[in-house]
Amino acid sequence: MDSFVRHIRKVEPVRVAVVCASHYGATRGIAERIAAELALAGLTVRVYDAAEPPHAEDVAGVDAFVIGSAVYMGHWLRDATTFVRRYQPTLLEHPVWLFSSGPLGTPATDAEATDILADTVPAEIIDFDSTVRPVGHRVFFGAIDPDSLSLAHRTIRRFPGAAEKIPAGDFRDWPQVEAWAREIARSLVKPAA
Ligand SMILES: Cc1cc2nc3c(=O)[nH]c(=O)nc-3n(C[C@H](O)[C@H](O)[C@H](O)COP(=O)(O)O)c2cc1C
């Protein structure tokens, strides 16, 4: 028995913070699905709204970060950007995955045959590529319900041609989201030696 006990090594849980910025909940839903998949893989996960980010002492205890934002007019939401800039030195020392929830509609390519997801690179990501060196950045299709939009967003949607680019509906691709989360889990959960 003693020798058996001696051979059980203490395995520390891997703690992941999933931080997201979401105006209407679509990105929050993606963050929660990622978190659920990571938890299934045995990781200790907590989802934070970037508007109420983890405190510095909580950040210090996190092993890996998944950070995502909805995209509006080509940009991440400010709360997500602020979180990344505030904790940049810590993020640089940890594995970080970034995601964006943006494009709406079902076609994978536009009229010029450009891959819509690959072509959606929020302005901030170019900067974060060098400042936090993420393991990866993934763009997911998003969702909008026109009835819940703010007056400003409704007005933008009334610009000529805008409603076709911002169609109503939920285009989130859950199998794609889950597959990405499993990729993250695989790289964080190392098989026992
Ligand atoms: C006014 C407006 C502007 C948008 N601009 C973009 C954009 O530039 N690029 C993009 O990929 N998606 C854009 N979207 C789509 C949103 O990013 C998408 O609906 C997202 O999933 C919303 O997430 P949220 O509910 O978490 O805020 C826009 C949506 C609206 C209503």
UniProtKB/TrEMBL annotation:
GO function terms (MF aspect): FMN binding; menaquinone-dependent protoporphyrinogen oxidase activity
Domain of life of the native organism: Bacteria
GO biological process: heme biosynthetic process
Domain Flavodoxin-like: 16-193
Matches recorded under Gene3D superfamilies: 3.40.50.360
SUPFAM superfamilies tied to this protein: Flavoproteins
Database matches in Pfam families: Flavodoxin_5
Database matches in PROSITE patterns: FLAVODOXIN_LIKE
Alphabetical list of InterPro entries matching this protein: Flavodoxin/NO_synth (IPR008254), Flavodoxin_dom (IPR026816), Flavoprotein-like_sf (IPR029039), Protoporphyrinogen_IX_DH (IPR052200)
Protein name: Flavodoxin
